[in-house]
Write a structure and sequence with these properties.
The chain is 50% helix and 14% strand. The protein has 271 residues and is an alpha/beta fold. The chain has a single domain, classed as NAD(P)-binding Rossmann-like Domain (Rossmann fold). The protein is globular, with a radius of gyration of 19 Å. It starts with a strand and ends with a helix. This is Short chain dehydrogenase. It comes from Streptococcus hyointestinalis. It is an enzyme of class 1 (oxidoreductase).
């Protein structure tokens, strides 16, 4: 294993932060970026390079990429990890909220990737890891916009992988299942609670109940850290890594039994 220059978005919490810690300890030069620098001071104390960046702000992106290049001369790994979940009835979520969801989960990935690619092409080497979700292959009630962004990341990554093969740049899709991170709090922060009394109140209130009392616990986020390290250390990584509680089960049910059975199973949980 050689030490690499790694740029990670969404490094202030959850999967990104825990993985950044492990990569720093492994001796890599890790650039940890997020909107809240104060939440990454412990990463700086470990030896990480902590930078403020909003993935929806092109000036932020250009500044960060240029700083990495100025200091290191290269970027070996880009992990597009920043994102959040927007949940609520399609009819009742404003298009401003929808636009913000795509700006962070899809366009932010595209913006940063575009800025990094010229340097990876020049060095004719690189690895891009895009965080999708098992939600990029399945779906849940009230999650139309979140799942749409993750389905988009799946297709985007496949096309990008083909385009970059000639330059020896690998593209990998990371598909976490249920992971014990701050994701659920993020969903709650953006949830359409005003829909509790509207026409979709039954499914909305059932979803709120499920958020308050999740049926199963998520996997320890260390499984993501181990998976990312495995991807980085592999000479020929797989195109996709599905990892975390519930991921293989739910995808298997949909694949084997079809959408109708999967639909009934999902709706049965919303009571």
């Amino acid at each position: 294993m050689t030490n690499k220059v790694i740029l990670i978005t969404g490094a202030s919490s959850g999967m990104g932060k825990i993985t950044a810690e492990d990569l720093i300890k492994a001796g890599h030069s890790v650039y940890c970026v997020a909107r809240r620098v104060d939440k990454m001071q412990d990463l700086a104390e470990l030896g990480g390079h902590v930078l403020q960046m909003d993935v929806t702000n092109e000036a932020d992106i250009e500044r960060v990429v240029q700083q990495v290049i100025n200091e290191q001369g290269r970027i070996d790994v880009l992990w597009n990890n920043a994102g959040y979940g927007l949940y609520g009835p399609v009819e009742e979520i404003s298009m401003d909220q929808v636009q913000r969801q795509f700006e962070v989960n899809v366009y932010g990935v595209a913006r940063l990737t575009q800025k990094v690619l010229p340097y990876m092409r020049k060095q004719r080497d690189g690895l891009i890891i895009n965080t999708s979700s098992m939600g990029g292959k399945i779906y849940t009630p009230l999650g139309a916009w979140y799942h749409a962004t993750k389905h988009a990341i799946e297709g985007y990554s496949d096309c990008l992988r083909l385009e970059l093969k000639a330059f020896n740049i690998k593209v990998v899709v990371l598909e976490p299942g249920m992971i014990d991170t701050g994701f659920n709090q993020g969903v709650r922060d953006h949830f359409s609670f005003e829909s509790q009394t509207g026409p979709y109140k039954e499914v909305v209130n059932a979803y709120i109940k499920a958020m308050d009392n999740p049926p199963v616990a998520g996997s320890n986020p260390k499984v993501i850290s181990k998976t990312v390290q495995k991807i980085i250390n592999s000479r020929r990584p797989k195109t996709r890594y599905l990892v975390g509680r519930g991921s293989h089960l739910l995808l298997g049910i949909r694949r084997i039994f079809g959408d109708r059975v999967y639909d009934r199973m999902m709706l049965s949980q919303m009571k």
